[in-house]
Amino acid sequence: MNNSIFCFFINIIVIPIVIILRLIRPWFLVRFGGMISSQIGHFAANTELYLCEKDAGINVPKQRHIDIFYFAYKPLCNRELAKMWKRVLPHVWPYLIAAPIVRGNRLIPRGEIHEIGNNTQNDRDVHNLLDRFPPHLQFSPAEEIRGKDYMRIMGIKHEDPFVCLTVRDRAYLNSHLPEGNWDYHNYRDTDIKNYVLACEELANRGYFVIRMGAKVHKAMRTRHPRVIDYATNGMRSEFMDLYLGAKCTFCISTGTGFDAIPLIFRRPIAYVNLVPLGYLFTFRKQFLGITKHHISIIEDRELTLKEIFDRGVGFALSADEYDSRGIRLIENSPEEIRDLVVEMVERLEGKWQSQEVDDSLQKQFWEVFPVKAVDPYRGRPLHGEIRGRFGADYLRNNPAWLAK
């Protein structure tokens, strides 16, 4: 039976199925959830947080119920991750069966209860659950052998510490989802050359650095033998994307899709060039972050932290919003990136030396930062308990930025 005939048959029986689901609802609730399977950030983080919320009893119906998932978007961003989710989610149905039922359910009023809803559409850990529950995904013994063997091919021994680096540019979405216009995301792009200093600093400290990416614009120019441009050297695979992200000592990220892999495996993350600033990741102690510099074009000066939010760009999610408000975003310098990475390394190694001013600067930052912010687009909280830290050197070097 080809797909068109199958779809026709399914559509005929959908409404009776929906009616049956409504009739049995008082005794047994059936819910459906479409996984955002075309983008790895949401595919990983949203699904893990659904499972954490289930463990915590959040957004869980009080009555007997079953949750049925399906991969709602194509193309599938990572087949290996899909395979792993199927091992922990007991009910993953084919798209051709589940999606028509969801569409049919939406045709009849008051069917919202049959959709899993917010806890699979949100990648913000506002309940700080990642620190409460262990990762839900595990590699099988065969996968562990496969991953270690491939790392040896890369020149990395099992005991060698390594860091993943993921730097957003527009190449991936334009290639993976070419039918969309992704220009509105371009304000998040950064230049890989600005990361070489930090990577070579890490390499000189004994770490391997692996530059991640399924599709990137530029190769990374460095001759250091411990810095591996995995994104361009022909060694990349969907499986190793997962394995490296899960096993890294920490990840350096600009706040882009891949970092959801180290996130769900509870790895520390150093965020650089992160915009919009209001979406700073705050919900784990193992998070450090700094943002791009926000420059007023008319005034030819950098905005303060308070001005970023007062002028409406603290939550801006498109390049046009920055342009319309006369704001130019300037990337973090190589030195700023290096300083944050060194802070992360030394904190993890127990060698970090705080200065007397640091606690005061952190306090000033969080007094201005809108910790009670609600997502202006979805109406949900963006932050739970604040556990992350803003980069110490960034605050030391820019004290006027904190002016109220």
What tags apply to this protein structure?
alpha/beta, single chain, 404 residues
β-strand amount: 5-15%
| SSE topology string | HEHEHHHEHHEEHEHEEEEHHEHHEH
CATH C-level name of the largest domain:
Alpha Beta
Shape, per Cα inertia axes: globular
What is the CATH topology descriptor of the largest domain?
Rossmann fold
Q: Structural class per helix/strand content?
A: alpha/beta
Indicate the radius of gyration in whole angstroms. 23 Å
Largest sheet: 7 strands, parallel
CATH architecture of the largest domain: 3-Layer(aba) Sandwich
Uncertain regions spanning at least 5 consecutive residues: none
What's the pLDDT, averaged over the residues?
92
Oligomer: single chain
Distance between the termini: 67 Å
Query: What's the tally of helices?
Result: 14
The structural domain count equals 2
Kindly state the number of beta strands. Answer: 12
